[in-house]
Amino acid sequence: MRLIVLRAVAARALITAASVVALVASVLLTTFLLLAWFQPVAAVRVALSEAPVEDRTVLVTASASSDPEVVDGRDEAVRALLADGLAGVELPVVSGGQVTGHHRVTETGPGTVVAFLPDLPDHARLVDGTWPGTTDGDGPVEIAVPGLVADHLDLDVGAEVVVHDWARQEDLTTVVVGLWEPHDRRAAYWGLTPEQADDDVVGPIVLDREEFLARFGGIASLRWLAEPSPAAVAEAGAGEVAAATERLRTRMLQQRDDDPTWAANTRIRLGLAELGDRLELASVVQRSSLVLPAALLAILAVYTLGLLARLLAAHRQGEAALLRARGADRRQLISMSALEGALVVAPALVLSAPLAVWLVTAIDERGVERSLGLAGDLAIYGVLGPPGAWLVA
């Protein structure tokens, strides 16, 4: 062992140079491959999260009915269709109904969207009052309105609002029992019926489901909105999910034609299909752009290490001849060379993965205009990094 240490000290310049080259090459190669693996997935996740609601959701629409049993049957059929998800990605469903283009606030006021939204309490908070219920007798119909509409029309809890049906020339007297505000106006949930408050349209004016169907079921439409998790879509593959959406459309059309439960005018909007195809193509291009320089770096690193190995071997020729003359056999010479080789690769083997994880995190947080959240993706593996990084190192 003392002889090995003396040999290493004597050739410390070459061994140090080879160790540095191996460490730098291994860190950069591992960094490139980590980026090629994690960055496209993170980019898809962020792109889906920030895409318009119509591009990242599945929307099914159908005519409503004044018969609650018919509406329940259509609701069950649509939920059963979406229950299988897309390429293993779950599709949480929210639903509602609305009627548009038929009513105004008074005869001369702005148009209004009248709706029922069973899941509204999960996506909005009451600012004042209560959620609407059914009406007893001939009293005014209870409604809840968004804060924006209340401010625009100068309404408060207890105010009466006349909703005018211009097609049938009928008036419906309503009373505001609640004011609400969305938790997050950017949430996909508002793709069911967006909040509006201007001189042309205000809404949604929300009624109890039973009250809505009894009064507007014959002219209303039902809506089901499903938003897959962006993280789950990114993991499953945007291309796989896009292909699954087309299969979903085919199944829906077949069930609509074969099952009388479905309304004949049922439609499905699959903006996710087109967006998924674009994101999948972008992911392939991004991975290719990272893998190519990684391959070139690996070739250059191997070539450089080969040159350093030849220099070290030439430096050792005289020592090897002297050791053989003093009785060292071939096995001993190979063992000493192997231990020197271990000194060269040990720093790269131990440090490459942690340094590559740190470098990827730094690139994501400081090297681009915005973070893709790679730090969070890598944090689950701890300081040492994912097993694949150690395999590359």
Topology overview:
Blueprint: H1 2-10, H2 12-50, H3 53-56, E1 58-63, H4 68-82, E2 93-105, E3 111-116, H5 120-123, E4 124-129, E5 141-146, H6 147-153, E6 160-165, E7 170-182, E8 196-197, E9 201-206, H7 209-216, E10 221-226, H8 230-236, H9 238-258, E11 267-270, H10 271-325, H11 330-366, H12 374-379, H13 387-392
Parallel strand pairs: 3-9, 5-7
Antiparallel strand pairs: 1-10, 1-11, 2-3, 2-6, 2-10, 4-7, 6-7, 8-9
Helix pairs in contact: 2-8, 2-10, 2-11, 9-10
Describe the structure.
By secondary structure, this protein is α+β, with helices and mostly antiparallel strands. The protein has 13 helices and eleven strands. The protein has helices at 2-10, 12-50, 53-56, 68-82, 120-123, 147-153, 209-216, 230-236, 238-258, 271-325, 330-366, 374-379, 387-392, and strands at residues 58-63, 93-105, 111-116, 124-129, 141-146, 160-165, 170-182, 196-197, 201-206, 221-226, 267-270. Strands 1, 2, 3, 4, 5, 6, 7, 8, 9, 10 and 11 form an eleven-stranded mixed β-sheet that branches. A hairpin with a 4-residue loop joins strand 6 and strand 7 (170-182). It is elongated and about 105 Å long. The two termini are 27 Å apart. The model has no long low-confidence stretch (mean pLDDT 80).
